[in-house]
C-alpha cells in the first residue's frame, strides 16, 4: 500500500511551483548593484606559445574598466587538483600547474588568454576583439596514442611526457596470468567510450562580490558543492580564509558532474571583484560551455575475458587510455582509476582482475566526472565483452551472467571494494518479468515482415555510490574528506529548518529530505524546510555527486534529527514528570510508555525556547543539533537493464522499441523522484549509445560546438521506459538503508542499447558484426553491416 | 540611436525605448523588464529554453529582435497562471513530474501551451514528442513531459467541450 506522506511516499515536489511559474532563482538571475561584466578572450588554437598580448587599444574602448592577463595572476595560486593517483612504480602522477588565465602557453581551444571587464557585457565582448594576441603555434596533441609516443611534443613543457600516470590495480601478474593460461576460452574486445559534453541546460555563471568595509568576498556560482569551491578557491587559489569567503549556489540548472569542479572563471570573478571593488559577473555562452565545461568519458580500452569451458569467468584484464585533456580538472585523476577499476568485478565472481590505465594529457578540454564517472566505462566494457563471449561460446546471454552472479554477501572483490549487499538474481528475474522475453521471437518475426531487424540486449550493472569513507578515499589519494553534514534547527513553534551540506540541482532534496525528517518525528512535511547551497548558513559539506546525497547527506540529517529527538524526549520527560527512557515519540506526540499521558511536539519545542518549566540544570535550552556523517563503505546499487531495438537495414537507423530497468536502490524515500532520476540517467545513456559524440579535428578544433553538431537526446529520440525498483536489499551501513539512484540509468543503459543492436544484426545474418563503437549513428551501423 | 516600440507583455501594455536594435526579446524580458523566468540556454534557437508566446504562437525569444514586436502580445511563464491558479499545463507538469532542475521548464511549458493551441498533436504521444522536440531537457524528463502534455491536452479539450456544450 503506497504511503501518502513520509518515507516511501510519492510526495509531489515542493520545488515545483517555483520552477513552473518562472520564480526559480538561478545565478544568472542575480544582478548586483554596480556590477561589471567580464568577457574572456579565449584561444582559438589548441596549442601555442603566447608571444605577446597587447591590450592597449582594447583598454581605450568604451566602457572598459580593466583588462587582466595571465601576468595579473602571477601572485595567485593555480587551480588545484583534488586527487593524487600513484602510478605503478609508486610515483605520484605528473601534475602540471593550471593558471587562472593562461601563462606562457595556451593548451586547448578555449583556454582563456585575457579577461576584459567592462560596464556592459556587449562592451566587454567588443573590446576583447581589439586585443592583439600573437601566438606561435605548436603541434597539437589530440590523439592519445600519438601523444604517448616517444618524443611527442609535450602539452606541458615542465613534465617529462604527456603521460599523467600509468596505473595498475587489482590482482598481481601471477594471478592474472594463471587465470588466462588456464582458460578454455578468451574473448577480447577493443572499444572506445567516446567523449561526451555534459550540457547542463543552465550555462555556468559566476558573480564575484567584495565588501570593502568588512573585507569579505562572496561568490555566487553554478555549483554542485559550494563548500568545496570555498575551500579550493579560498585556500589554494586566492588565499582567502574561509571565514572571509562566502560561496552561494542558488537554484542550479543541472550539473551532471560538470558543476562539481572549481573553474577559472569563479576564481577570476572573485579576484577581480576585490581588485575593482565592485561586483563582476560572467555568464557562459553555450559555445564557452562546449570549450570550458569539463567533459566526460573518453576512454580507449582493450578488455580480455578468460572463461572456463562452462562459461565461468576466470579473469578480466583491461588496458585503457584515459584522456585528461589539457589540465587536471578537480577530480579528473580519480575517474579512470578508483571510480572505474574498482568496478571491474561487476556483478560477478571473477577471481582475478587486473586493470591498467594510462592517463594522457592532450590539447583538448579537461575531462572529469560526468554522470556515472568511471562506472559507465567499467560497466560498458564488461557487459559488452560478456555478450561477445556468450555469442562466441554459444551460450545464452542471460544464463552466462546468472552462472557468474555473486550470491553471497558481503563479497570482497579482487579490485578492493566489498559489496555489502545485493541480489542480482532478483533484479534479473524482475527484468525478465518486465520484458516478455518469450514473446521476442514473435516480435522479431513481425519486424522482419516489415523489413526491420529486431534485437534484444540485456545486461547488468553495479556501481559504487554514496561516496565515500574519508579514511579509505584518503588512502586512495583524495585530498578531501567525503563526509556530509546537517544542522537541524527546531523553532519554538515546532517547525524545523534543516541545513544540509549537500546541494539540490534537480534531485528534489527539498522534498525527499523533508519527508525523512517529518517521518522521524511524525509531523507534517510542510513543517520542515530544507536549506542548502550557501556556505553562510549551512555546515561544511562536500556537496552532491556520485549519487551520495541521500546515502551520506540524508544519513547526517538522520543523525542530527536523532539528537534532536533524544533531547526533546528529555524535555518531554520533565514536562510529564517521567523518566526520559520511558518516553515514546509517535505521530508528533511524546507519550509515557503504557500510559495516556502525553505532550505534543509543539509543547516540547516551545518549552525548549521558553524554558520556564525546564530541567535547566541538566540540559541547555534551545533545540538545534548538527551531525557529520562519514560512511564506512560505499553503497552498491545494482540492477539489470534491457533494450529492444529495430534497425533499418537500408539506412542503419536504430529505433528503440522498448527499454526496461530493474534497479535495486535499497530503501526508497520518494519513488516518484527515483523514477525521474532513472529516466534521466537512461536518456543520457541512450544519448551516449546513439547520438552524442564530442569530436575534435586533428588541429584541436571542437567540431561539435553547438546543438547543431552535438546531438543531444530530444523528446522524439526517446521511448517511454519501464522502470522498477521493487527489488530492495537495503544498504547495511547507513541508517536509511538507501543506496543512491542518480547515476544508475546512465551506467546501465549504454551496453543494453549496443548489445541490442549487435543482436539485431547477428540475428539478421550479419555474423561479422561483433561490435560497433558508440554512438551508433545510422552511418556507423550501416557501415558495420556492409562489413 | 533610440527605437521605440509598444507591446503587451503578460497583459500589461509597455512602451520601450531601445538604445540598440540588436536587443532580442529574450534580453529585453530578462534584462530590461525584470522578467527573468524565461531562460537562456544557447542563445541560438537550438535549445528552446527561451520559448515564449508571441500573438499566441510559440517562438524562440533569443532569435526574435525586440524591435520587430511593435504591437505584439507576448506571454511569458510569469503570465501564465491566473493568480494562484496554475494553468492546466503547469498542473500537469507537477502531476507527471515533468521536470527536475527547472531550468528548461519555462520553455517546455510555454512550448506545450503553444503546441496544444496549434491543435495538431492532440494526446498522441508520438506527435507530442515530435512537437516538443525543439525543447531540450538535459535532466531528460521527457517521459513525464510527454505524459503531462497528453494529460493537459485531454483536460483542456474536455474543458472546451464543457464550455461549448
Which tags fit this structure?
heterodimer; A: 787 residues; Aldehyde Oxidoreductase, domain 3; Aldehyde Oxidoreductase, domain 4; five-stranded mixed sheet; 23% strand; B: 165 residues; alpha+beta; Ubiquitin-like (UB roll); 2 domains; 5 helices; 5 strands
Quick structural summary:
The complex is a heterodimer of chains A (787) and B (165). Chain A is of the alpha+beta class and 787 residues long. Chain A starts with 15 loop residues before the first helix and ends with a helix.
Give the secondary structure arrangement, pairings included:
The complex is a heterodimer of chains A (787) and B (165).
Chain A: H1 16-20, E1 36-42, E2 48-54, H2 56-59, E3 64-69, E4 105-106, E5 112-118, H3 121-128, E6 132-137, H4 144-147, E7 163-170, H5 173-181, E8 185-196, E9 205-211, E10 216-221, H6 226-238, E11 245-248, H7 264-276, E12 280-283, H8 286-292, E13 296-307, E14 313-325, E15 352-361, H9 375-393, H10 397-404, E16 411-412, E17 418-419, H11 424-435, H12 440-449, E18 453-462, H13 470-475, E19 484-490, E20 496-500, H14 509-521, E21 528-531, H15 549-576, E22 583-586, E23 589-592, E24 598-600, H16 601-609, E25 624-629, E26 638-647, E27 654-664, H17 671-691, E28 722-724, H18 744-763, H19 778-786
Parallel strand pairs in A: 1-12, 10-11, 14-15, 20-21, 27-28
Antiparallel strand pairs in A: 1-5, 2-4, 2-6, 3-5, 7-15, 8-13, 9-10, 9-12, 13-14, 16-17, 18-26, 19-20, 19-25, 22-23, 23-24, 26-27
Helix pairs in contact in A: 9-18, 14-15, 15-16, 17-18
Chain B: E1 3-9, E2 12-18, H1 25-32, E3 51-54, E4 57-60, E5 73-75, H2 88-95, H3 105-118, H4 125-131, H5 142-164
